[in-house]
Amino acid sequence: AQSVTQPDIHITVSEGASLELRCNYSYGATPYLFWYVQSPGQGLQLLLKYFSGDTLVQGIKGFEAEFKRSQSSFNLRKPSVHWSDAAEYFCAVGAQAGTASKLTFGTGTRLQVTL
Amino acid sequence: ETGVTQTPRHLVMGMTNKKSLKCEQHLGHNAMYWYKQSAKKPLELMFVYSLEERVENNSVPSRFSPECPNSSHLFLHLHTLQPEDSALYLCASSQGLAGDQETQYFGPGTRLLVL
Questions:
Q1: Rounded percentage of chain A residues whose pLDDT exceeds 90
Q2: Is B90 in contact with B43 (CB distance < 8 Å)?
Q3: B30, B43, B100 member nearest A94 (Cβ)
Q4: B4: which strand partners?
Q5: What is the pLDDT of residue B13?
Q6: Is A43 in the B-facing interface, judged by CB distances under 8 Å?
Q7: Residue A28: pLDDT band with limits 50, 70, 90
Q8: Given an 8 Å threshold on Cβ–Cβ distance, is A43 in contact with B40?
Q9: A65, A71 in Cβ contact below 8 A?
Q10: 8 Å CB contact of A99 and B106
């Protein structure tokens, strides 16, 4: 069965500093990987996704993620964090459910941004 | 974003009550999902519907009863809940064509408190 591990429960960075959120996955086949962000009281918004091809994926809001098969990782990065990036970030791996999908999520990383 | 809407946004119910959560998607999708988000636990997939047919049921207690009358609407009927069922219930939808590659779009959630 697939699984996702986000080792960091909580991270604090200063505004303008760089950010890297870690994600490790376990999946038997080619993984389809996603990063979602959740602001307080809101649902989840897709930041980016990896299906195949280029291992460096660009997303919205200046985020990017790099797929490393050898390390079973899909870490999220941003060169310069803004205060509005404070939120909870979830990594997920997709599996098939008929013609639909089912996502397995990590426990999330809460990002705090200090001014 | 108004692609996926959920009502009510907040719900307080006693353990003997019966209530329903409603989800509506305006994206023309064919698959819909219910997730449960509890504090300090990963998002848990509860049910998957594809073309109004349930394709996944993740060992959810029978006090949760889903209903998908058409591809745009999804309900979660609740009865005789327990306090540990208090959580944020998230609805999502996807195209329902590409299996594990599907991107899921989430609603804002219903915050449920069971007293």
A1: 77
A2: yes
A3: B100
A4: B25
A5: 93
A6: yes
A7: confident
A8: no
A9: no
A10: no
Residue A100: which of B43, B50, B105 has the nearest Cβ? B50
- Mean pLDDT for chain A? 93
Whole-number Cα distances in Å, B23 to B1, B2, B26, B68, B88: 14, 11, 10, 10, 13
Q: ∠ CA(B8), CA(B13), CA(B19), 5° rounding?
A: 55
CA distance A12 to chain B (A): 18
Alpha-carbon torsion angle A97, A103, A104, A107, nearest 10: -160
Taking alpha carbons only, the member of A10, A1, A2 closest to residue A114 is A10
Q: Tokens standing for A79?
A: 């060169």
The answer to whether the Cβ–Cβ distance between A101 and B100 falls below 8 Å is yes
On chain A, the residues whose CB falls within 8 A of the CB of B46 are none
- Residue A71 φ/ψ, nearest 5 degrees: -105, 0
Tally the residues of chain B: 115
pLDDT at A13: 97
